[in-house]
Amino acid sequence: MIDKLELLLSLAKERHFGRAAEACGVTQPTMSTSLKQLEDMLGVMLVQRGSRFQGFTPEGERALDWARRIVGDARAMKQEINGLKDSLSGEIRIAAIPTVLGMVASLTTPFRARHPDVRFRIVSCTSAAVLGLLENLEVDAGLTYIENEPLGKVRSIPLYKESYRLLTSPDGMFGDRKSVTWSEVGQVPLCLLTPDMQNRRIIDRALKSVGAEAMPMLTSNSIIVLYTHVKTGRWASVMPAKLAETLGLTANDSVRMIPIVDPVVNYGVGLVVPQRDPMTPLVATLVQIAREVAPSLEA
To answer: Is residue 299's pLDDT more than 70?
Structure first.
């Protein structure tokens, strides 16, 4: 049953019979037979078939919810049993939005100090993708905003409040100021993340609240692209204060980091994990470390 449910989850991820079979290390005929057996066991059709994958039936969508729950619990059981006989090991997969990548080491470093046999896989993606990967059991935990947009069925552990700064050169627009308003930020040609990123939507919303609008001269889904442009001192941007500090932009004489006020905008960032009890030993340890380091991140 577990193997068949794993195939169902793979099909939901790949949306293609051949790729799903390949991802699971089986042939396509084997996969088709297994899914048909699962349908026979449940007495309903789960997959809309044709010359290619056409989607899931309503019963199939509901079966997917159960599959995520059952497979997740099976993995947790296996990990916990293995943890009883061995020291904590294995791989923990974390999906993170670009603006929090700079602080991932605040979690992974103390984790590795306690459990040196654990490996980490970090992927960067949008906040929506973080939740999607978590729901489909493709990652074990996520780092994202926890107050701005709906999170769904996850458990969240607050880490810190994100505040925002205008990064500009000392001789740039408003470069000599101790603070700027969001209305003034709307007058600055900026380089920003693309609109599919929640950070960009937060900035757009803050500007809109004062009747202003972003004027990006450059957009990218890569923080590195924004960082390298801002570091030249010839470009301006709006970045979370903690990210700018982590990247070392505050130590760059050609860049000023100016607090944005009127209004002061803060959004919570945190760790999100599946709403499942018991948690796997790896996830439980990550949650424990997140709670321990949160006060230092907020400082």
So the answer is: no
Neighbours of 138 (CB within 10 A): 14
What share of the chain in percent tops pLDDT 70?
Answer: 97
pLDDT in tens, 57-83: 888 888 888 888 888 888 777 777 766
d(CA 284, CA 274) in angstroms, rounded, equals 11
> From CA 68, how far away is CA 180, in angstroms rounded?
47
What is the C-alpha to C-alpha distance for residues 136 and 150, in angstroms, rounded to an integer?
A: 17
Rounded-to-integer distance, Cα 34 and Cα 9, Å:
13
* Angle between helix 2-14 and 17-24 (nearest 10): 130
Q: 44 with 29: CB under 8 angstroms? A: no
- For 205-255, the pLDDT digits (tens) are 999 999 998 889 999 999 999 999 998 989 999 999 999 888 888 778 889
Q: Which long-range contacts link 5-9 to residues 24+ away (Cβ below 8 Å)?
A: 5/38, 5/66, 5/67, 5/70, 5/71, 6/71, 7/31, 7/34, 7/35, 7/38, 8/35, 8/38, 8/46, 8/60, 8/63, 8/64, 8/67, 9/64, 9/67, 9/68, 9/71, 9/136, 9/137
